[in-house]
UniProtKB/TrEMBL annotation:
It is an enzyme of class 1 (oxidoreductase). Gene3D superfamilies: Medium-chain alcohol dehydrogenases, catalytic domain, NAD(P)-binding Rossmann-like Domain. Belongs to the zinc-containing alcohol dehydrogenase family. Its cofactor is Zn(2+). Homotetramer. It comes from the Archaea. GO terms for biological process: L-threonine catabolic process to glycine; protein homotetramerization. Pathway: Amino-acid degradation; L-threonine degradation via oxydo-reductase pathway; glycine from L-threonine: step 1/2. This is L-threonine 3-dehydrogenase. It catalyses: L-threonine + NAD(+) = (2S)-2-amino-3-oxobutanoate + NADH + H(+).
Amino acid sequence: MAEKMPAIMKTKPAYGAELVEVDVPKPGPGEVLIKVLATSICGTDLHIYEWNEWAQSRIKPPQIMGHEVAGEVIEVGPGVDTLEVGDYISAETHIVCGKCYACRHNRYHVCQNTKIFGVDMDGVFAEYAIVPAQNAWKNPKDMPPEYAALQEPLGNAVDTVLAGPIAGRSTLITGAGPLGLLGIAVAKASGAYPVIVSEPSEFRRELAKKVGADYVINPFEEDPVKAVMDITDGAGVEVFLEFSGAPKALEQGLAATTPGGRVSLLGLFPRDVTVDFNNLIIFKALEVHGITGRHLWETWYTVSSLIQSGRLNLDPVITHKYKGFDDFEEAFELMKAGKTGKVVFFPHKG
Ligand SMILES: NC(=O)C1=CN([C@@H]2O[C@H](COP(=O)(O)OP(=O)(O)OC[C@H]3O[C@@H](n4cnc5c(N)ncnc54)[C@H](O)[C@@H]3O)[C@@H](O)[C@H]2O)C=CC1
Ligand SMILES: CC(=O)[C@H](N)C(=O)O
Ligand SMILES: [Zn+2]
Ligand SMILES: [Zn+2]
């Protein structure tokens, strides 16, 4: 195996990233080295690429980017007895402590000492990468690597959609970015109907329909609340799933939710948000869930089963595939322009 490898690295505290040659890492105690078979771009990677305020407050360049991955174990570090060479794995990105109040209440997804790989340490946008053995998830051998890499964001979508009953429920999804598209796939696979999607990008509304949305709305051209009321004969939706991070979408979604309905909030807002709590939440007795990360490890079992069931319509979600990293800047710029669903890199050109 080569001693050097290409990697997409945040080399300096500024816009963009660089494709650089770095040493192939060695696994330390409790770590494995994987050959990266597929790795996909997350919205968080875009924040790091663009070097927004959050990224400036959290990322310490130089650092290899990326955290959505599928790979083959090629070397096992000292003390690792749960994995062996040849295992086909993906990785939970939250490295949790197991000791804090949250972890001791089985709430690992909100561990108070969470470290995230690809965010707080070198990630997986490379030909080889280090994964903590405690974060490895073993994949069935026949799962396509591009699906296996998507399990991490699919976990966010599963926790959002399945935070309450969904089968047979009318559902509004605001935001059909990569995560919203995965949310549509999970909602449809789980029996939601109708699935109504509010999304201003025409490109992404078309993707939403391909994934299985029953109705799509352009919130910049028509009132989504009125559209939802027309579709639901004035009742509103039973379930509102927020995947946009847009304050207006939040307000519209709450107004479109039927009294007593359920709300799951995954989208991250750019700033503090003002909401009419009395009339949009309290007097409607809405059930509201904040969603983050993935429940460890039950969400991974659910995601893997959903993929293996064949009921998740993932192919329309994966809009761009790249062999190697040479065109990574094109990939990031297309994603920034909202002209993609999920973007997947296959690092090895052979
Ligand atoms: N809570 C968590 O653990 C995580 C949260 N996130 C957040 O989830 C959200 C979705 O992630 P991505 O799909 O990657 O984001 P994205 O930014 O690619 O997609 C957001 C979509 O919302 C659409 N949108 C904008 N204004 C809208 C409006 N008024 N009504 C309806 N749609 C509107 C945009 O056109 C875009 O397609 C982001 O805010 C991201 O930061 C992502 C990962 C984990
Ligand atoms: C930080 C991330 O983007 C990651 N997908 C997560 O679920 O926390
Ligand atoms: Zn992510
Ligand atoms: Zn903890």
